[in-house]
Every structure is written in structure tokens, then in C-alpha cells.
Amino acid sequence: DECFVNHSFTPNALWHLGFIFALRDIAPGQELLMDYRHVIGSGEQMPFLDGETGQQIVGLPWPEVLRISTQQLVAIL
């Protein structure tokens, strides 16, 4: 459930079509991080900034989300 995953522009998890996949080994107790731009609406801004970079988090267009997440999923398979 993405409600229990925090945001990062350098995530250790991937959201793809409602499923979350580990992008690399995740140690027990390690925070799960995904890119929120993949799960919010196109152009929607989160009410907070990225904690690491201070950048705004703005939703990507669905075709771009699908392209990026599919490429990342293929890379880990």
C-alpha cells in the first residue's frame, strides 16, 4: 500500500500499475521510498517539498509514468 511508502527522487521501490517492487535489496527496518510523481495526478503538486532536494513534487503525465515504470521494471527483471 503506497500509504506506507515515503517519497524520494532516488527511490528504493517502484510503483507500477498499483504494485510496488523493490528496485534493490531492502534491509529489514529500512524505509521504503518511491517517487510520488508516479501516483499523483498529472501536474498535481504535493503540499510539501522533497526532503532531500527541497524541490516541488509534481505529478507526471500518465504516459510518461507508464513508460518510466515499465522501463524500470524490465531492468530489474
Q: What attributes does this structure have?
A:
77 residues; alpha+beta; two-stranded antiparallel ribbon; 26% strand; 1 helix; globular
Shape designation: globular
Number of strands: 6
Structural class: alpha+beta
Low-confidence stretches: none
Question: What can you tell me about this protein's structure?
Answer:
- This protein has 77 residues and is an alpha+beta fold.
- It contains one helix and six strands.
- The chain has one helix at 62-76; strands spanning 6-7, 13-16, 19-22, 33-34, 45-49, 56-58.
- The strands form three sheets. Strands 1-4 form a two-stranded parallel ribbon.
Brief synopsis:
The chain starts with 5 loop residues before the first strand and ends with a helix. It has a two-stranded parallel ribbon. The chain has one helix at 62-76; strands at residues 6-7, 13-16, 19-22, 33-34, 45-49, 56-58.
Describe how the helices and strands are arranged.
Blueprint: E1 6-7, E2 13-16, E3 19-22, E4 33-34, E5 45-49, E6 56-58, H1 62-76
